[in-house]
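Input.
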Amino acid sequence: MTRIILESDNSKDVLLITELAQRLKIKYKIEKLSSDLKPYKTDNQTNYLLKEGVDVSNYGDPSQWQKKVRKDRH
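Output.
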């Protein structure tokens, strides 16, 4: 199963997409978000990570970790 999530503020676009889904016999569900609810709320830590990134130098060599974890596989 594959899930595709679409968001739109345009009711005509939503109608067009639902008509297409019906024609293709695809299950769909419409959820209305309240105007005061933001779909992607982030906090300060998340914003910092998105802007600055993370120092991964102290994690070691990823290829060695992968070999250790998957040593039972060929």
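Helices lie at 11-23, 44-52, 62-69.
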